[in-house]
User: Fold this.
Amino acid sequence: MMRIGELAGRTDVSVRALRYYEEQGLLTSERSPSGQRHYAESAVDRVRLVQQLYAAGLSSKVITELLPCVVEGDATPELLERLAAERDRIDGKVAELLDVRSRLDSVITGATTNLLTGRPCRNEAAPETAPGD
Amino acid sequence: MMRIGELAGRTDVSVRALRYYEEQGLLTSERSPSGQRHYAESAVDRVRLVQQLYAAGLSSKVITELLPCVVEGDATPELLERLAAERDRIDGKVAELLDVRSRLDSVITGATTNLLTGRPCRNEAAPETAPGD
DNA sequence: CTTGCCCCTGACGTCAGTGTGAGGTTTTAG
DNA sequence: CTAAAACCTCACACTGACGTCAGGGGCAAG
Assistant:
C-alpha cells in the first residue's frame, strides 16, 4: 500500500493531480484511520490509463462515464455507442494529425533542401513581387 | 474583400475566434477607414491552417513562431529544429492515440460479444470474488 | 431620418487541469 | 522526544481559447 507521494513519483503525475482525479471520481483510494490515502499497485495502471484518455482529448466527465466499462470490459449498449463515438473521434483526430504532420514534413524537407543548396532564407531580401501572396 | 462575418461563415470559425487570431498575430487584416476588417481570399486558407495547427496541439505562441516559415516554405536552421520537434511530438501523439484507440476498440469488441452471447451487464450481480480486482 | 444589420473595442466569464500557499496533522528518522 | 518530511483540507490563482455582454459606430434600404 503506497501513499500518494509514491504513486505520484511512479506515474509522473503530480500529487495535486492525483487528488484531483479522485475528486473527479477517476481514482479511488483507501484511507488510513488518520485520513491518508493508500493505493494498491493497480492504481499505477489506472493513473496511466486516465492519462492516456486525457491525452486522447476526453474530458474528465466523459472519462468518468466510460472508465468503469473500460476497466470492467463490460458495457451497456448505450455506453457502447459512446465508446464507439469516441473511437471514431480519435480516428478523425489521427487523420488530422497525420495531415498536419505531412504538411510540416514537406516544409521541413523543402527548407532543408533550400539550406543545402546554399540558398539563404528568402525573407531577407524578397522583393514585393512575391507571387504567392 | 470580405468582412469578418463572411470569413467566419466560410471557415466555420467564430468571429470572436478570428479577432483572437489577429490579436495573437496569426491572421492579419486590412482596415477600412472606419476600422472594419477586410480579408482577401487567402485568409480562408490561412484560417484553416491555423485551425489545423491548433488541432495538432500547438499553442498560439508556437504557431506564431512557426507560421511564417510554414507559409513561406522557408526557415532558419533553428526554426527547422523546432518544426522537426513539433513533427516528432505529433508522431508521439499519434502513437498514443492509436494505443488508446486499440484499447477502446478491444473493449468495444469484448462488450459487444458479451451482449451478443446474451450475458447481461456483469455489474448488476457481480459477486465479490471478482478475479481482476 | 430611422430601422436593422453588421461591425468595433473593451472587459469580464468559463472550463479544465493544475500550481500554490495557508494552516494543521501524521509519519518517519535520528 | 524532536525535527523534518510527507500528508491533509480548503481555497484562491492561472493559462488558453474562446463566449458573451455592454456600449457605441457605419452603412444600405425604405
About this structure: The longest helix of chain A spans residues 77-116.
